[in-house]
Amino acid sequence: MTEHSIRPSEALKHVRYEIRGRLARRAHELERQGYEIISLNIGNPRAFGLRTPETMRLAMIENLGEAEGYCHQKGIFPAREAVVMQQQGRGVTGVTAEEVFIGNGVSELIDLTLRALLNDGDEVLVPSPDYPLWTAAVTLNRGRAVHYPCRPEHRFIPDPEEVARLVTPRTRAVVIINPNNPTGAVYPRAVLEALARLAERSGLVVFSDEIYDQMTYDGAQFVPMATLVRDTLCATLSGLSKVYRACGYRVGWVSFSGRTHAAGEYLSALELLSSLRLCSNVLAQWSVQTALGGHQSVLELVAPGGRLHDSRAAILDATARSRFLRLAPPGGAMYAFVGIDTGVLPDFDDQQFALELLEQKHVLIAPGVSFNVPYRNHFRITNLPDAATLREVFTRIEDLLTGYAGARRADLGGTSKVVNARFK
Predict the structure, then answer these.
(1) What is the CA radius of gyration of the chain?
(2) 71 and 43 share a domain?
(3) Is residue 179 reached through a cis peptide bond, with omega within 30 degrees of 0 on the bond before it?
(4) DSSP bridge partners of 340
(5) Residue-level pLDDT at 423
(6) 25 and 87 share a domain?
(7) Could you tell me if 223 and 320 lie in one domain?
(8) Backbone dihedral region of 21: left (phi > 0), alpha (psi from -120 to 50 degrees) or beta?
(9) Order of strands across the sheet with 378-382?
(10) pLDDT tens digit string along 4-18?
């Protein structure tokens, strides 16, 4: 009998998600060997002791009996209405529960909203660096991700004129991630207004990923994109995972505003796709109304003296003290996108560094190339650990970089070749 290999779909050929890729798999192997790994590759609050507000858990317990059957494909009404009320409170007009869809996290909704929109070869403007699911979802849904640069020398803020030059007749949408993952940049109002006008002139759908909307630091002002977009369709995506520390609940939402009257067929297509997956997690939806309408405990975490504020301060201090590291201070979210001064380390490679940091110092980070950038001298970490843990992390990072710059560089390069061979 002839043995036939089972090959994966060609659609996956250009799809990657290195945040949970080979480095993460190697970290699991090391943990099984007994090593304690400090995992900074993923923004998972529960892993660092940050709990979901108790009121949200109680809301699910009290509605357990209401969660045993399917719900409407768009989600339960109290959850959708809570999203409407939040948007109205921010000055967004024209949104009703009919324009809100609840999904199994924002991740599912990114896929569904793009699948309902794209045809073969359609282009979507995506920031670089980006949260890589956006690029992957565009690719999987037959589109082409066109990356607009958010340059380190500009504090990772995009230039709307540069974005405009990338628009072609095939461009269907523009993705805006604000506050940004992975950089923590919080976009100024003037930049967002310019991007809104660009989308309106070009007839582009605006996908505004605002999952970190209430995570800002030191006076940074978050501006909801839906308050600026009037003459095209704006899709605002958010959820419970980050602000409410409920990643495992898998609840996200997308609300549509702007020219919804001209998007009836598109919204019907999205409802069809929502129906095919029946509905999203019903039990966790019962926590949405409590979350959005209750006390916003995240504000205490990001304020001076709060856990996330102090952890961010530890990162800022460590990078400022380093002769190797450079950082545009993150104004929001839960990450830092740290750069290496290539004038000091001209041969630095982010993937090699991430691998050696894991093998030698037992710290797991995400190399910058994971986020669809053309350069190789950045890495992303999360500021979810406490400040003391992060100070220890940067001590290990500094030690490894000092070795690169010193007499041990050749030995470290040889070690890297041996380690890399394990992955071939």
Answers:
(1) 22
(2) no
(3) yes
(4) 325
(5) 38
(6) no
(7) no
(8) beta
(9) 325-326, 335-340, 378-382, 366-367
(10) 788 888 888 777 777
Give the CATH number, domain containing residue 63: 3.40.640.10
Contacts 24+ apart (CB under 8 A), 52-58: 52/240, 52/244, 52/245, 52/246, 52/249, 53/244, 53/245, 53/290, 53/291, 53/294, 53/295, 53/297, 55/290, 55/294, 55/295, 56/240, 56/244, 56/246, 56/287, 56/290, 56/291, 57/287, 58/290
β-strands 378-382, 366-367: how paired? antiparallel
CATH of the domain at 31: 3.90.1150.10
Domain stop point among 293, 310, 332: 293
Residues 394 and 246 both lie in one domain = no
Q: What is the pLDDT of residue 247?
A: 95
- CA dist., res. 123 & res. 291, Å (int): 36
Per-residue pLDDT averaged across 370-391, rounded? 96
Same domain for 230 and 349: no
CA 383 centroid distance within chain: 14
Could you read off the pLDDT of 38-53 as tens digits, one per residue? 999 999 999 999 999 9
Tokens of 44: 């998972």
From CA 67, how far away is CA 64, in angstroms rounded? 5
Q: Which of 278, 293, 308 is a domain's end point?
A: 293
Query: In sequence order, what are the beta bridge partners of 338?
Result: 379
Mean pLDDT to the nearest integer, 375-399? 97
Same-domain pairing of 123 and 23: no
Q: Which two tokens stand for residue 125?
A: 């403007």
User: Distances in Å between the alpha carbon of 358 and those of 224, 301, 378, 412?
Assistant: 38, 29, 16, 13
What domain range is 64 assigned to? 55-293
Indicate if 222 and 197 belong to the same structural domain: yes
The model's pLDDT over 85-114, given as tens digits with 9 standing for 90+, comes to: 999 999 999 899 999 999 999 999 999 999
Token digits of residue 42: 């993923």
How many distinct structural domains can be found in the chain? 2
Are 230 and 309 within one domain? Answer: no
Q: pLDDT for 289-334, tens place per residue?
A: 999 998 999 999 999 999 999 999 999 999 999 999 999 999 999 9
